Amino acid sequence: xxxxxxxxxxxxxxxxxxxxxxxxxxxxxxxxxxxxxxxxxxxxxxxxxxxxxxxxxxxxxxxxxxxxxxxxxxxxxxxxxxxxxxxxxxxxxxxxxxxxxxxxxxxxxxxxxxxxxxxxxxxxxxxxxxxxxxxxxxxxxxxxxxxxxxxxxxxxxxxxxxxxxxxxxxxxxxxxxxxxxxxxxxxxxxxxxxxxxxxxxxxxxxxxxxxxxxxxxxxxxxxxxxxxxx
Length: 230
Fold this sequence. Notes:
The chain has about 230 residues and is an alpha/beta fold. The protein has one domain (about 5-230): Spore Coat Polysaccharide Biosynthesis Protein SpsA, Chain A (Alpha-Beta Complex), CATH 3.90.550.
């Protein structure tokens, strides 16, 4: 039996410094067939040029800056894989990430999503003073995030796309809707993602948008209450 096609989607905004490491980690999975899509989300640096070094193995899609949700949706549009994975342009997958998750999905056809654990690390290009300002958990953490997930494409057909009207919390919103639709997920004990801490991660860069988290959580709770009343 031939291996399934996996689509890897990498949203990238001004990511020229770290994108090469991210793409190296995708191709180091050794999985074939593999479709890799980098979505340049309105970058003003050489992000697209870095991604094009892997051409034709990487498809580069460009769009005006619309945020992570819009970039993921642009990657999903026309994705051909039976399975879909995401990777932020400043992070890296661990060796064997796709193989472990594909094995788990094959073992349980009722599962729609498989997650793994995250290990955080301080980017080695930071100065000691910059590194000292960052909190880096010493142990792997459960990774309920898009970059730790391998999903059957059918899950997106059921749940729909990511929200594009929030700067933060689009994945929390998507997971809430997924669970409302009865999508099933599992968490592997293995570490599947190396998350780079560098002082300008999305959550730090968009501090003023943290109210989006409260908004998506409130809306999910409101839907749950409305469903219970119905």
